[in-house]
Amino acid sequence: MESRKRTVKKKKHHANPSPNQKKKPQKQEQSKKSQQKRKRRRKGKSKKALIEAQKRRKKQKRKYLLFEFLGAIAITSILVLLMSVFLFSLPKVEGYSMVSTLRDGDRVYVNKIGKLKTFELVYVQIPGTKEKEVRRIIGMPGQKVTYKNDQLQIDGQDREEKFIFDEKQTSQENGRLYTDDFSIFTLTGSSEIPEGKYLVLGDNRPYSVDSRQYGLIDQKDIIGVVEMRILPLHLLQSF
């Protein structure tokens, strides 16, 4: 009987776990929870790091795009500047010598490598001054030019000036000449225009200051050919 009681007590003793054994699973659970928290923190930190890295990349891209844009503008500006020095210019018309073809304040496109021809509009440096103006070529090197009774003659042949037809007609109806009589001989003492020289007149003949006052223009003083009026936009026109 005593031996049985002892065995029962032993069994009971083994059946009831010690307090240390109860603590172990609690510690394991706590350690698991702490590990999970660490993982969450790491994930949170990694997400933040990714977001910050993406933000940095976006900022860098914006900077690169901005630099590229500014670089493109700078290169374009330099190219336009170089082209304007050698190929074209966009001067503003000043005064009323070219009325009614061009008016004061008009902006024109000048081709610096354009071909010089009779009746072509040109942008010229006025001899002995710093002024630059638009005028029309009437006489080329080697030509004989005369005006008589409002009729232009080049090398003895009558030439029509369609660009001032209405103005001439109005002036003649009022009993006046639109272009006063003159010739190359009266201007220069030569029978024809010398080599490298050009006779240029304004279209507003009664009021224009041109080769009749300051003489023939040297070829080097012709900046370029006026090919278009670009401003004002509603009067956009090619010549």
Quick tags:
239 residues; alpha+beta; Umud Fragment, subunit A; 2 domains; 5 helices; rod-shaped; Pept_S26A_signal_pept_1; Peptidase_S26; signal peptidase activity
| Percent of residues in beta strands | 15-25%
Specify the CATH class of the largest domain: Mainly Beta
* Secondary structure tally: strands: 12
Let me know the average pLDDT. Answer: 85
The CATH architecture of the largest domain can be named as Ribbon
> What is the global morphology?
rod-shaped
CATH fold type of the largest domain: Umud Fragment, subunit A
Name the helix and strand elements from N-terminus to C-terminus, one letter apiece: HHEEEEEEEHEHEHEEE
GO biological process, one term: signal peptide processing
Region (Disordered): 1-55
Main location: membrane
GO molecular function: serine-type endopeptidase activity; signal peptidase activity
